[in-house]
Design brief:
This protein is α/β, with parallel strands linked by helices. A 7-stranded mixed β-sheet has the order 1-2-3-4-5-6-7. It holds the Pfam family PHP.
Length: 286
């Protein structure tokens, strides 16, 4: 079966592989196609697409936007978007400025907790890309403050933890509209992070669909078989595309293998074909 990965991150945001390395790894892994979906940035896409063309591997331009959601974490993936769109880029810039303001606040909270960590140390491990919480977690691990990334997030960095700082997020509707305005197709990422029961999730997806949602990330590294089965039902009920990805961050998210997640992930190529068909029919010329 020909496999793909539609959820990955590079050094342009909080991954440890640069865009070129990511494409080369996908080729080596045997994937037929890969999308780059960095957090709130499209800075890696030119090199990503250029490398894909060079080595004859299908590469899909993407992004992962953070939207406001009180109960949990809401991310919207955008695929095939015109990432040179000036309005889109202007809005992204405001996201990046907010992210830049957030990280020193997290560092300050850690310092107030008695942890010896500096912004310069975190900047060093970021490789020059956008700094994110995985970079902070990596420094905490390297300094022996925590044993691994999961512990860093659980103990200090996740929502509700002592060093967590909320970042600027836009409303879900605006998030979807941003992607559509850039001729992309919006997809709900990892629905389990919304922390909704089935009834509430169904109602929320209906609302997102009315705003223009085009798909659901059904196959994901951390979804249980029961969750995956339910998300398939929701996608079918609301006539949404099914997508999937590993959320690969390289060294910055331990244990996740490109295209395979924790070894339990397989995303077939035909899902990408269906996503392209829907994009061309409903979103490309908007």
């Amino acid at each position: 079966m020909e496999l793909i990965d539609l959820h990955t991150h590079s050094t342009a945001s909080d991954g440890s592989f640069n865009p070129e390395e990511l494409v080369l790894l996908a080729k080596k892994t045997g994937l037929k196609a890969i999308a780059l979906t960095d957090h709130d940035t499209v800075e890696g896409l030119d090199k990503f697409l250029e490398t894909g063309k060079k080595i004859n591997l299908e590469t899909i331009p993407g992004v992962e936007l953070s939207a406001y959601f009180e109960k949990g974490t809401l991310h919207i993936l955008g695929y095939f978007l015109d990432y040179h769109n000036k309005t889109f880029l202007s809005r992204l810039k405001s996201f990046q400025e907010a992210r830049a303001e957030r990280n020193p606040k997290i560092i300050k909270k850690l310092q107030d907790l008695g942890i010896a960590i500096t912004y310069e140390e975190v900047k060093l491990v970021s490789g020059g890309g956008q700094i994110g919480r995985p970079h902070i977690a990596r420094v905490l691990v390297e300094k022996g403050i925590v044993k691994d990334f999961d512990t860093a997030f659980e103990q200090f960095l996740k929502k509700g933890a002592p060093a967590y700082v909320e970042k600027e997020r836009i409303e879900p509707k605006e998030c979807i509209e941003m992607i559509i305005a850039a001729n992309g197709i919006p997809v709900l990422a990892h629905p389990f992070t919304l922390h909704l029961d089935n009834e509430a999730l169904e109602a929320f997806i209906k609302k997102l669909k009315n705003w223009g949602l085009g798909g659901i990330e059904v196959y994901y590294t951390e979804h249980t078989p029961e969750q995956t089965a339910y998300y398939i039902q929701l996608a079918q009920k609301f006539e949404l595309c099914i997508t999937g990805g590993s959320d690969f961050h390289g060294k910055n998210k331990e244990g996740i293998i490109l295209g395979k997640g924790y070894g339990n992930l397989e995303v077939p190529y035909y899902l990408l074909e269906r996503l392209k068909e829907k994009w061309e029919k409903d979103y490309k010329g908007v």
